[in-house]
Every structure is written in C-alpha cells, then in structure tokens.
Amino acid sequence: MPRKPKAAAQATAAGTAATGVQYWLVKSEPGEWSWSDQARAPGGVAPWDGVRNHQAINNLRAMRTGDRCLFYHSGAGAASRRVVGVVEVARTWYEGEGEGKEAATGGAVDVRAVGEFRNPVPLGEMKKAAGEVEGMRDFALLRQPRLSVMPVPAKGDIATARPHFVESTLSCKVC
Q1: Core vs surface per residue 59-69: b (16+ CB within 10 A) or e
Q2: What is the C-alpha to C-alpha distance for residues 95 and 136, in angstroms, rounded to an integer?
Q3: Cα(115)–Cα(87) distance, integer angstroms
Q4: Domains of the chain (ranges plus CATH)?
Q5: What single DSSP character describes residue 100?
Q6: Rounded CA separation 92/82 (Å)
Q7: pTM (two decimals)
Q8: What are the start-end ranges of the H helices in 31-131?
C-alpha cells in the first residue's frame, strides 16, 4: 500500500469527528455540475472527478466510504457561493476508467446525494463565523479559496455542532 501523502494525513486528522466519519467540503461551479445535476444522477450517485490540484486530489484519496461532504456552489457571483447540500462518499478513490477529464486527472470518488439544505449557507455567514466559532479560522475555504476539495475543521464547537447542523438543516428530497 502506498504511503499516505502528508497533506492527506493532515486532512484526515482534521476532518474526523468522534463517530469516525470525516467531513469534507467539495466545490463545483453550478454551470458545470450543480446540486440539481447530482440529485438527478441515477440513485443520486456520480463520480467527483476533474480535480487537478494535487492537494485536492490528496484530499479525495483520503476519503472513505460513508464520509460526508458539504456540497458547495462556487462561482463568479457572491450570491452563488454557498453550501447547498450534503453528499456521502459511496466509493473511495479509483483510478480513471474513462476518457476525457476523469482519465486525464487520474481518478475520482463516487458521491451520493444525501439531502439539500432548506436554507443554503452563504460564504458570508461562514466568514462571519470564523471570528466567532473556534476552529473556523482553520477552515481551508477561508484560507485557500481556490482549493476545490478540503476537510471541514473538527475543532472546538465545530466538532460538536457539525453533525447536528448538517443533519437538522437538510430537506431530504433525495435521502
């Protein structure tokens, strides 16, 4: 088994909750792949591919079946930058089996739609929370805004509140 890259090892440690489930954030431009596209995929399952940044690829490789990911719409307009749903890792990292972007980037993980947020969480709210909630300052979304796959911090109040926050705000149209 290959040695786990240092960045992935740190991501794993940072994103693990008491339940052993890791929490991640995955970003997608709504024009390329939206929450609606994910929910409409057969069984809500689709590959998360096309990632080129090495740190983001290492984070994908660190994901395990059952891990949860916040589905974040990125984009040019501030209004579109928000967490809109939750997906679950259905299949861990696999090497590219197809053609095009998946094969070019080397692989993917499969994710399954779990639920859509009734009230999406805008980036502005997360930035505000960075000054109020312990651990939010470490969130890569606020430090490395171009990173497309990142762990959600598991420190202080976030570790306690995160699972409840995720589960209680979902509208399980696709559960």
Answers
A1: bbbbbeeebbb
A2: 33
A3: 7
A4: 6-171 (3.10.590.10)
A5: T
A6: 25
A7: 0.77
A8: 35-40, 54-62, 101-105, 123-130
- Average pLDDT for consecutive 10-residue bins of the chain (175 residues)? 44 55 93 96 96 94 96 86 93 79 72 90 82 75 89 58 47 39
The helix (H) or strand (E) run that includes residue 69 is strand 68-73
CA 115/CA 73 separation, integer angstroms: 15
Q: In one letter, which amino acid is 86? A: V
Are 103 and 96 within 8 A, CB to CB? yes
Q: What span, in angstroms and rounded, lies between the C-alpha atoms of 6 and 8?
A: 5
Please answer whether residues 122 and 82 qualify as being in contact, where contact means their C-beta atoms are separated by less than 8 angstroms.
yes
Which phi and psi angles does 50 have, rounded to 5°? 80, 10
